[in-house]
Amino acid sequence: MSTVTSSLNRWQKKELCSFFNNANLSLLFKASVHGFNATTFHEKCNTQGPTVIVAYNKSGRVFGAFTSKSYAQTGQNVVDDKAFLFSFNDKEMKEDPLRVVSGNPQYAFTDNGPNFDSLVFLYNNTANAYSNPGTYQFDPQKIHGNDLQLTECEVYRVEDFEGLMEKPWRNFRPYYIKPSSSVTHVPFILCDTMGLEDGVNTGLDVDDFATILKGHIQDKYQFNPLMPIQPDSPHFHKSPGLKDKIHCVVFVIDISRVKLLSDKTIEKFVVFRKKANQLSIPQLVLLTKVDEACPLVAEDLKNVYQSHYINKMMQEISSQLGVSLSVVVPVKNYYQELEIDSQTDILLLNAVVQMLRAADGYFDDFYNPEERSE
């Protein structure tokens, strides 16, 4: 099944988030995928807490409605003094976003569908909206440009992280880091492995993981989830020294996937951590793509340790994996930049420093002069 993705571009998302004190948005429903009808809308959106409907039309308008209450299909009018309609024009970015509150919060919306009285979405289970200013007073031209035929309709859960805090808080491959032409490589190696997968007999095998930690697997070994490496394999290092062993394990997790980790995936993490703990190998967790998770961080990476949402995700993954919050390190990926960025580098280098400190702790516990001299 293909991944359901948001139709919001970066500018649109920033405009939308500005209504909610820069909250995080989690996509629940996409009409072009799930259908332009109220039944699937409720299947995806009921009991989700605060949500925002985002509709698109050919006129370039992005418009919709927010409620701080949950949909429950009672058919009753819902009291919500935080509900509002909104609109902005994707073709006129200099125009300020429009926000319209209800003239009577006692009748904010009807929870039997995306029905805000003055503006109804998925009207008659079609790709259309219905507009009749009343409870919400607005100029139809400014809200939807008098174009009620929808090209898309999405619903997002609004996860408010309250802005900024007042105070900060596959193949196995070794990679040698070469900082300059005058230096062969720095005195540490980063080793990459197959990732963890959710299904049965997929992803890195726990026996292969243990074999890597002990230094038995050599460069370019092709992992087979169905069959861990055998001692007679040409890629099996029979007598590894301390320099061949792993001195720090780093789990890399996309921050947008934290809330989507299945119980089976978390169980795998627990098993892998247990193996590493048995060998007294320290572990870190890298949370990647923090700029994509929080608009405030995307605007300025210096905000990463002041973002309530990033802090919340760090605490959540810390709890899920059973690790200390101090070993969860946020970073931003390089993915489309043509030049280096100092703020991105600071986060990445901080992660490297944490790895080296953890590895030093390993040597402090298991220092062997004979092995270390190899």
Automatic annotation (TrEMBL):
Coiled coil: none annotated. GO terms for biological process: immune response. Residues 1-159 form the TLDc domain. It comes from the Eukaryota. Transmembrane segments: none annotated. Belongs to the IFI44 family. This is Interferon-induced protein 44-like. The gene is LOC107658324.
